[in-house]
Specification:
- This protein is mostly helical.
- The chain is elongated.
- It has six helices and three strands.
- A hairpin with a 2-residue loop joins strand 2 and strand 3.
- A three-stranded antiparallel β-sheet has the order 1-3-2.
């Protein structure tokens, strides 16, 4: 199943679920910085929307609090975002990579990891 498109705010909620695991809406809300913390009902509405998108699900109920967990992995959501970004460049990675290199965000460690990934894919017979 392809991961649905998620907004920045939805990704922040998902990050809490990926980091903390299953938790109630109150815990998700409290994960936001105090100065910029959205209202409980705002988080609740967004979690319910994520449930409709099938990226979270209710796993149990403790008292009156429903406990939610992510059904989409962080890696799948990140792949979706990266694919969308590359689509803006006609599928070309070169402009994106150039930006990362020029801005100093692409390190030698990143190069080594990329080389290892390419080698692993080559051994599996997949096209890198």
């Amino acid at each position: 199943m392809k991961s649905p498109k998620l907004s920045k705010f939805e990704m922040q909620i998902m990050e809490t679920l990926w980091t903390r695991g299953a938790c109630p809406i109150r815990d998700i809300q409290e994960a936001f910085p105090a100065k910029k913390r959205p209202a409980y009902t705002t988080i609740q509405t967004m979690v319910y929307r994520l449930e409709v998108k099938k990226v979270v699900r209710r796993v149990r109920k403790i008292g009156s609090a429903h406990i939610f967990e992510a059904t989409v992995s962080r890696a799948d959501a990140q792949r979706r975002l990266i694919d969308e970004l590359l689509a803006l460049f006609g599928g070309r990675t070169q402009p994106v990579m150039s930006h990362f290199i020029e801005s100093g965000k692409f390190t030698m460690e990143d190069v080594r990891e990329a080389e290892e990934t390419i080698q692993k894919l080559s051994k599996k017979g997949k096209k890198p």
